[in-house]
Write a structure and sequence with these properties.
The structure is a homodimer of 475-residue chains.
Chain A (H helix, E strand, L loop, with lengths): L8 H14 L4 E5 L5 E4 L2 E2 L6 H7 L7 E5 L2 E6 L6 H5 L5 H8 L3 E4 L14 E3 L5 H11 L18 H15 L3 H23 L7 H14 L3 E2 L4 E3 L19 E6 L1 E3 L2 E2 L2 E6 L6 H19 L7 H18 L7 H6 L27 H4 L26 E4 L2 E3 L2 H4 L2 H9 L5 H5 L6 E3 L2 E4 L6 E2 L8 H7 L7
Parallel strand pairs in A: 1-7, 5-6
Antiparallel strand pairs in A: 1-4, 2-3, 4-5, 8-11, 9-10, 10-13, 11-12, 14-17, 15-16, 17-18
Helix pairs in contact in A: 1-6, 7-8, 9-10
Chain lengths: 475, 475
């Protein structure tokens, strides 16, 4: 029912202290959320605490509320329902919870309303993701983002103290502290084992499901879980492919986008390997183009670098490679300016990574985009989730790709300018029909010096991958 | 984004026809629900359609609404958002969806309000589990069960046409048709493989996580998933143990309650095996008592039998065994009347099983309890989820157990009468300290003749289990 923090209480005290100095004067309330029912109330998905709560408290406590005033932080906890010890075992004592989380005091949740005496407008909060929690939070604090009949759980428009709190949380969470990095490295290690197991389990005639099972078993065996729905597909061109029901065939590439979550902290890695264990020459050519673009982009993860520039640089590198292969004709720079690369690389180069796989996306673009920046209108660039100047401690993904997406390549509005000018050589492209989708993704930490790739151990060179694929089948 | 039914459309047409004859005159609206966000809107738990929708349509379509009027059934589907084909691939055409689900017509969801002309009170519906769906459903149909700030997603109090619809759905879903049984048998097969893998992966010094991984990988490899959070614990006395972080030790029993879900249909199986591969003599004695009670109860799953009587019969068998072992003293019948068995077997003997692992529990006790019956007040019996007369086609679990729950055995109110009268021999009980929890659970189909145990292949005899535990470790 209740886990306790895995780090010493000082870690969370320090984070709360840093937050307090940024929101001086306000009373802060952070809601932990609760488990979401799957098909009836008692059958829930595994509880995942609200990330802001997890960041500041270190563990998930369903329905709990963290309240800060000045530098005094307190937890409001629901009382165990009758019979809880029978069904869920003994809970830690209130004293133990206070000691392990380092809060000043622990109270009964039913007394939370006593904190409203300062006035709801003097209280700062961020909207919870769980709908029931958000509903009660909105009612308690009189917030206008109460749910309505066509509500999505997208980012609520924040104002006043709520906006200031969100910005303070972003400022903290953008640059990871040592405790965070410890978990992020552990997540990366779990992902390493998962991808190796996935490669070993791949073989012609097997279902994608078999690879999913091998990957997720490695996570589960370490007490981790998938940080997001694993993408394991011979149809890599479907960017958010949720099914795993295809039978893998010898000529296919398998695109695997899977990352482990450790104590709430995520990793996010993509590899693309040949089902047969051997890339064809066309697959090899395009794979090397994507890999070169990825390596070049990773090198540019440096303090002060603007992430959008790295995205465009990766697009340029990719376009150069496609010109060399004869798929594009013309000047790479001019092609990128006109957005040609987005025909094959429509998504962004990457995003923030932390407690959330798209870190702090619950706050919309507030975290990913610096205050004076906004999404572009251009096809491709408009999907970029991150446009900040990098700083030491920021963790980002670098994940260029090449896809032949039918919906794009049949779109006259998108392709027309490049078809008509001869910039796109469809006849040459046809020679690469055995590449539906390639993506290569790593988790890259910006440091004072050279970037640190947390997921560097996961093989991405063609030779290394070819040695690993299928090795575990029939063993 | 969208799966298609796995059975021919006639299966669902037949179900809808049978429902229509039971709710003649009303317009029926069944909501499919949508994926629940995990830590931000775009990172969702795997979508699980509402069970009533799944029963009548055969697949999940997020946000869809099934509308029936007389024998005409139609689907209202959300339109794909712009770019959907890019991210999620091409969706099946509306014609294909209509053909595969067998509905008369398919409409755009935005036109659903045109069906309100009959008046919201002439429309029958059952509350969706997904909070956002329930909210929009409540707003559309003017239902009083709109969510409020302390709302749980428990069963809403239904009246009028909604209550009649719920009863009609229960009447249909209580007795499984051939298509349902096909899925339920497939789920049982997945669970068989999962438990065997779990036994093979068990060994002293390993984490419970390793067994969870082995179990769930077998489900995932078959395109199935856990029907509920797997319980895998050396602390079987914590009935709903959610953690898997203990290291297994040689003298421990491991209680494993895990079942696969196939195309939405559940299985639910518990086995309890020794970590070392050998039951101690005390573990063996108590295991045999539980197993004998379970076998005796299964034999009584016959048409016309009242489930509560089977529960009490299992309690009697269990108590007989405990008297033989010297843990209880006295007449088994009298002990059961006074509720003595519930000190060690506090929960119910089982529940309905179907699309939900506690089938139709979204409707509260309306499904599990016959109209003229209600839960007892007695400790133990009050937890019984099912009190109906059995009929062919009903699938129930039979899952007696023996647990030494500290919260019960230290409860003077519960134990006092038996301590004081000498009915409970604590000194004798102390000899069985190495048994914290045993449960044995199978899925049992009531037929015209002898009961059919769908999960009979999963070993439960001591000799068979001892041959299997640890066999896969180090292999």
């Amino acid at each position: 029912m209740l886990s306790l923090p895995t780090q010493p209480p000082e870690v969370y005290q320090e984070r709360r202290l840093r937050l307090a100095t940024r929101v001086a004067g306000a009373t802060t309330m952070i809601f932990a959320g609760r488990a979401r029912p799957r098909n009836y109330a008692a059958n829930t998905y595994a509880y995942r605490p609200d990330s802001h709560f997890l960041y500041l408290v270190g563990c998930g406590i369903q329905q709990a509320v963290l309240v800060g005033e000045g530098d005094i932080w307190e937890l409001y906890l629901p009382e165990d329902p009758p019979g809880a010890a029978l069904w869920h075992g003994e809970s830690p004592s209130l004293e133990e919870i206070a000691a392990r989380t380092g809060v000043a005091r622990v109270h009964a949740l039913r007394t939370l309303s006593s904190r409203l005496h300062v006035g709801a407008d003097r209280i700062a909060t961020v909207p919870a993701i769980d709908p029931l929690t958000r509903l009660s939070q909105g009612a308690l604090l009189g917030r206008a983002w109460a749910l309505h009949d066509d509500a999505e759980l997208g980012p609520a428009p924040l104002t006043g103290g709520d906006a200031a709190l969100a910005d303070a949380l972003i400022e903290l969470r953008l640059r990871h502290d040592d405790a965070a990095l410890q978990h992020l490295r552990a997540a990366a290690e779990g992902t390493y084992a998962a991808h190796l197991a996935g490669m070993a389990a791949t073989a012609p005639g097997r279902l994608e499901h078999a690879v999913v099972a091998a990957i997720e078993a490695e996570m589960l065996a370490r007490g981790m879980q998938p940080a997001y729905g694993s993408i394991v597909s011979v149809h890599g061109e479907v960017l958010h492919n949720e099914g795993h029901g295809h039978t893998m065939a010898a000529g296919d590439l398998l695109l695997v986008d899977a990352g482990a979550e450790h104590a709430g902290w995520a990793s996010d890695v993509t590899r693309t390997w040949p089902v047969s264990g051997r890339y064809t020459s066309t697959q090899r050519d395009l794979y090397q183009v994507v890999l070169a673009a990825q390596r070049a982009a990773i090198e540019r993860v440096r303090p002060g670098a603007r992430y959008r520039d790295i995205h465009l640089y990766a697009a340029l590198e990719l376009t150069r490679g496609l010109v060399e292969l004869g798929i594009f004709r013309g000047e790479p720079e001019g092609l990128v300016e006109r957005g040609a690369h987005a025909l094959f690389f429509p998504h962004g180069l990457g995003h923030l990574l932390g407690l959330d796989v798209h870190d702090m996306e619950d706050l919309g673009d507030r975290a990913g985009y610096a205050p004076d920046r906004a999404r572009a209108q251009q096809f491709g660039l408009g999907y970029l989730r991150l446009d900040r100047d990098l700083a030491p401690g920021m963790l980002v993904t670098i994940e260029p790709g090449f896809y032949q997406v039918p919906a794009i390549l049949a779109d006259r509005g998108l392709c027309g300018p490049f078809d008509d000018s001869g910039a796109l050589d469809r006849a040459r492209l046809a020679a690469f029909a055995d590449v539906r989708g390639i993506r290569i993704e790593d988790d890259v930490l910006c440091t004072e010096g050279a970037p640190e790739v947390l997921t560097a151990a996961i093989p991405k060179d063609i030779e290394a991958i070819e040695r690993l694929v299928g090795r575990g089948v029939g063993a």
